Amino acid sequence: MAWTLRVYLIVTGVLALLVIAMPALVIIGAMALILPGLFLGAMPSAFLYGALFAIVWYPGRHRLGPWVAALAGLVFAAGIAAGLPNLANTPLAGLVAQAREGDRQPEAPVAISGILRIERERNTGGVTPFRKGQRQAYLCDDLCAAALFTPGVTAVVLAAAPDADQGRTPRARDDYTVTYRLAPRSANGPACSDPILPAETHSGLDAWPEVQSLRVAWKLALAAGTCLLRDPLDAAPPQPDWTLRLTKGPLLSGSGAWGFPPNASYGRILLASRAGETLRRTAVKARLLQAPLWIEPTGGMQDFRFGWARRSLTEGGYETLDLLKRTTNLGLSPAATVPRTSGRDMRAALVAALDDPAVPAGDAAFSLVQPLFDSMGSLGKRPDIYPGDVALVARLIGDARLRDFPPVHQPIRALGPEAAALRGPIVAWILAARVPEDREPARTLGRALEALPPGSFAEPTPDEARLLADPERRRWATGLIRRQADRGGAAARDLVQIIAHAHAQPVPKRSDPDRFDDANAAVQALCLLGPEASPVLPDLEALIEADAVPRRALDDWRLMLARLGKPVESFAKPENLSGTQSGFEANLRKRLARFRPDYCR
């Protein structure tokens, strides 16, 4: 047995040291045949128990005999396997009891009213953009908005919890405490003087499926005559009637992967009035040593490693939103405080804003454009389309107050053939776009032109001709350039001119990400035209011969040139492609024979 045990310790010890030093070997073994990975992963534990057995057996075999010593070794190893985790985990029970001491829950939902102070950890929630000489403040997020729209709540104070980072007193530069209120619009005008909208973020809360409906309801309320106000940033926050504190932190920190003490953290929700605590709930999550003790691989591909096996434990677990819904009157669901809205409500609010030139661009009504477009093209849902939607979308695109657009392709696809009426407003918007300030919205609209119904651009309009002749703005109208294929061979010369002009421009001193967008779109349009554009093949060949086009760009031209009639055998296989010349030509012929429009991308 001595020789067998010695060989066992040497083999398992060497393999254990190897896999702990290079854990990737386990992954390689698992990817190869699975069983080698499992075998290598078990080596550290195998060596551990072999070593524990050997500690008793070697000195005891002479006094007790080999078999009695073997039994004693097995008992010792089993005792360590079961006893050490229990001993290391013992302090946790007291910590859990101490952390959860004082937890309570109201028998009936609490009616929160007056001023509510919401405290969370310092790194939870967004802050206002930094402005020189102005202090930053927490943004009013979804929880803040839900509280403000709760009947009876007059103000919400957002602040960092005093124990959010081990009791550190906030310094002036990172004290983002701020007060938000709702108030009727001023009688002197139809709009808020400085429109503020709730920030659409959960700020670390649990999943909130109903928040999308709530956001629309809040926007409708703000558009209908309510202003979201923020107190001056240098004003002292008012004394709260209620305080809601959401915190979490460590309870017990183990010593990493090889430490014996457990790792434990807590999460706590506390609601208190001026009279005292009404709600207190503490959840403790811990990672304890697994019994029996063994060594396991953990982590992903980037941080794969070994450590003591641990099990998870949760005491007093809760979901913040669910708990608040059951114990308070906060408007966390549409049924609680805010009436459910319909598509007609959104459309009516947008029409009213479009009809009133005094409504500013930042008004809440215009924030309804995103949910409106989403409702028209929700993935997996039936599009929500109403009579007059084409005219409404056209008015939205044509209104100068809107300088940022959600993806317009959603309503275009939902509206079907009627979407052709959006062609003129989109082109007009891009023509009037400011260079370079309007780059993003212009690109969004320019790409959306490609989604218009088939044949929409068969006959060019004067505005489209002006846009295609504008070298600055046409780079944003890539959808229009691709759809020149609707014109057939008549568009081929114009597309070649776009390509030649883009590649003839000098290299800019600064980065210009849009530099070849129009040229690339023109190449794709020629690819779609195929044989109809064959008369311009000599012009393209001349550009190539004159080295007017970088060689790296020609890789994207290959299918286009072949579609225009360039012989397949005239293309040389690029050096960076594997395979033979004949295989390269066969693949190109296959793409020509089985051509699909998406091949031109």
Q: Got a strand count?
A: 10
Strand order of the largest sheet: 4-3-2-1-5-6-7-10
Give helix % range.
Answer: 40-55%
How much of the sequence lies in strands comes to 5-15%
Low-pLDDT parts are 164-168
Specify the number of helices. Answer: 21
Number of domains: 4
By secondary-structure content and strand pairing, the structural class works out as alpha+beta
Largest sheet: 8 strands, mixed
Q: For the residues shown, what is the average pLDDT?
A: 86
CA radius of gyration is 34 Å
Gap from first CA to last CA:
70 Å
Assign an overall shape: flat
Keywords summarizing the entry:
13% strand; 8-stranded mixed beta sheet; 4 domains; 21 helices; alpha+beta; single chain; 601 residues
Could you give a quick summary of the protein structure above?
The chain is 42% helix and 13% strand. The protein is α+β, with helices and mostly antiparallel strands. The protein folds into 4 domains: 98 residues, no CATH class; 237 residues, no CATH class; 114 residues; 145 residues.
Structure description:
The chain crosses the membrane at residues 7-32, 38-57, 64-84. With 601 residues, the chain is of the alpha+beta class. The chain folds into four domains: 2-99, no CATH class; 102-338, no CATH class; 342-455; 457-601. It has 21 helices and ten strands. It has helices at 2-21, 24-33, 35-64, 66-100, 142-148, 211-225, 320-327, 343-355, 369-376, 389-398, 409-415, 423-431, 439-448, 462-468, 478-482, 492-504, 517-529, 537-545, 551-554, 558-564, 581-593, and strands at residues 114-120, 153-160, 178-184, 226-230, 242-252, 263-273, 276-289, 295-298, 305-308, 310-315. The strands form two sheets. An eight-stranded mixed beta sheet has the order 4-3-2-1-5-6-7-10. It has a two-stranded antiparallel sheet with strand order 8-9. Strand 1 (114-120), helix 5 and strand 2 form a beta-alpha-beta unit. Helix 1 packs antiparallel against helix 3, helix 2 crosses helix 3 (35-64) and helix 10 runs parallel beside helix 12. The N and C termini lie far apart (70 Å). Mean pLDDT is 86; it is low at 164-168.
